[in-house]
Structure formats: structure tokens, C-alpha cells
Amino acid sequence: MEELFNFGISQEDALTLFKALDIEENDRLLCIASAGDVPLNLLAIQDLRIEAVDVSLNQLYLAKIKLHAVCSLEPTEAAAFLGFTDAKPEERKKLFRRVSELMDSNEKLFWIENMSAIEKGPIHEARFENYMAKFNWITFLIFRKNKLLRFFELETIEAQQEYFDRNLSTSLLKIIFKIVFHPKIYKKRGMAPEGLTHSGERNISEFFFSRFRDFCSATSARKNYFLQFCFFNKVLFPEALPEYLSEWGIHRIRKNREKLKFRHLSYTERLDQSRKGEFNKFHLSNVGDWMSRDEFAQILRLIKEKAASSSRIMSCYIHCNHSIPEELKNFLMPDYQLGERLVKADRFPFYTLVPIKTNFEQKDDR
Question: What is the DSSP letter of 20?
Fold first, then answer.
């Protein structure tokens, strides 16, 4: 069976985005929806208006079911229903009845036709997560599950780094990375070909391996849901759950539910439709990895034309750093040093981060 989505979990740390975009109360953010975790986490952290867009209707269904789960279930129920923690298929089907009360007819029909995804936990029906899960048994075979569990019990970053260097950083692990991320295997199986537009025949295993130590030990492993999900295909500790699944996060989202909108269209289309000053914060994710240089340049031109004054942009990439068009260099100023500082404390440090400040005057039109 072909997976329903490319991503079950958005692979960006909302805490990093919050700092890079200098998010403040009542900001107006235009972002990529992807799996929905970015807009949900940001709304859980701060009161702001968010419009999340995506060209994939299925990704939007996933993002919206996460929102519906947060608005209709208790935190532990929502985490289990979505697949972050364990639950039996029948339990998830019962929870779905409550979640579905908030859905429109199209959403409800989609999930009824894909009830197996509900039974597994929707985030597990994604291409990338399924691909990585296939290699979990190899990790357990090499390091033993108890040794990995011990890593998540360590109390300091220093202890994690020492443990990683002594027990986990092996030549065999590097070989596994070369296999998992070999372009002939990774393309199509782990990533949609469009997401590797600029990768060529490059074996990105070296890049991923170079960031893997930071992934494991630069932040608290016990609080990093990306890391726990990577190793165990679930979140082990409640304190590691995404911000929108915390008690305080769910409370804020329910209070500000109407401030989050999901729309099925491209980022370029939404920018083209927007009024001048309608948005002052822009989350581009790594759309540049999926686009041609001209397509990405068009997004930047539209932001310059439509953004409010003193806006902030957050872009990132793995394969291609699209340069700022010559005519925009006086208006859009990448801060690569800030990006380097931020990635050192990122819970998923596999992107190169490019925060961009703006330098133009624009009337706000809210």
C-alpha cells in the first residue's frame, strides 16, 4: 500500500523557528502546513494568527486531524490517537468518533476510507517515517535496546555527548547511514523525488551523519520527540511530546482555534492573493529544495512586494541554498551566523537554517 503522506511529523523545530522569526503576540504568519506540527506548535507557544498552506490535500488532512484531536481529546488521548504513543487499533477507532465530530464531510470521508491509518496512528502512514522505521531493527541489533534506553535516562548534555562518543558513534553506524541515504535507495522510498530535485547523485549520508551527534546529544534526549521517534517509532516520555500536545499547549490552541487557518494552495498563490502588509512573518521551510531557482526567486519577490515592514523570513535547505536575487539584495538580508547559532540547539539539526531580515517600508493592512 502506498503511503498517504510524505511526512507524518514536520521535521522542523518550532522552538528554533520561534527565535528565528522573532515571534511576538499578534504576529501574522504565513507558513507551510506540511504535517501540521509547525503551525500547531507555534500557536501553542504564542498568540498569533497563522495561515498554513500546502499543495498536498492529504498533508492538509493530516494537519487538520491533529488540530481536531487537540480540540476534542485530552492530551494523553490525542498523543495516543495520533500515534505518538501506544494504543490499540480499537481504542483509536473509538477516539476517532469524537475527533470526527469536528470534521467537514470531505475530511470525514477521507479518513473513513483510510481507517487503517487511524488504527495505526495517522502519523505512521507517511513515506519518510515508514522508511526510517524499517531500519529500527538494525539499530536495536547493533546497539541493543537497553543500551539505547539508557541514553534517554541521562540527565545532562555532557553525559549524553560522552555516552554517544563511547557507545553509539561507530564505524558500523556510518555504514548504515551510507545505505539508508544512498540516492538509489532513499529516492522514492524515503523521499518523494521532487524533494531531491537539487541532490543529483550526491550521497547525503555524510551530511546527515555529521549532524547525527548533535541530534543525539545537543539537546535533552528525554525532551526531544524527534529523537525518540527516530529510534523507537514513538515518544517515550510525556515531557517530550510536541508543544501542542502539552496541557498548556492544548489550552492555548483551544482558546485561539480561530486564529489558525489551513488552505489548499501553493505558497506562491497565497502570496499573490495577499494584501500588502497582511503577513509580517514567513516560514518557507525547505521549499527551495523542491523548487527551481526561478520559482524560489518569485516567492522572495512576492514577499518583498506584499510583506509588512520589519518582517522576518525563515528558510532552510539540505540540498540547495538559492541565492537572493540581485535586485532584492538591498531588501532581504540573510543572517547565516544566526542560523549557525540556532542549529546548535535545534532538536532536528539536519537543515541549514537561513533567517532573513527585511529592509523596506510597507504599510500594514490587517
Answer: H
